[in-house]
Every structure is written in C-alpha cells, then in structure tokens.
Amino acid sequence: MQKPQEDKQDAGKRTFTKRLVSGSVVASWCSIWLGIYAGQAAAVVAPMCGLIVGLIGIYSGTGHMDYRAFLSGRTRSPDQ
What we know:
There is one protein chain. By secondary structure, the chain is mainly alpha-helical. The protein has a domain at 45-74. Helix content is 80%, strand content 0%. The protein contains three helices and no strands. Helix 2 (16-37) packs antiparallel against helix 3 (41-75).
C-alpha cells in the first residue's frame, strides 16, 4: 500500500521531536565520554545509558501510537 503524496510532504515537517531526541542522545554520549575521561564512569555511564534507552523508547512508543491513531482516523468513513 502506497502512501499518498501529501503524507510524504507532511512527514518531512515533523522533525522537531526527532532533532530534540537526537540532540539529547548526543549530549548523553558526550556525558558518558567525559565521565570515562574524568574517571567517574561508575557515576555517569549507567544513568546516561538509561536516559538514552528511555528517550529512544519513549520517542518510538509515541510515534507508534501517533501512527496508529492516524491510521484509525483514515479508515473511518466521513459519516461516522
């Protein structure tokens, strides 16, 4: 099933959250690197890895829910 052309154009506009998550993940990796470099790996690595996993999980979960809601809205007839 192909997406209509308008959906591809709209999808390109939704980049704020993706950039926000990407920036947070990059900042977390920088914190991990600095923590290892400064000898504080035990205090930094575990929380930052948890933050990375949490951010990506929340981003993916929210995206799946948004897409599911979008699909259910498109399958309804206009009179419902």
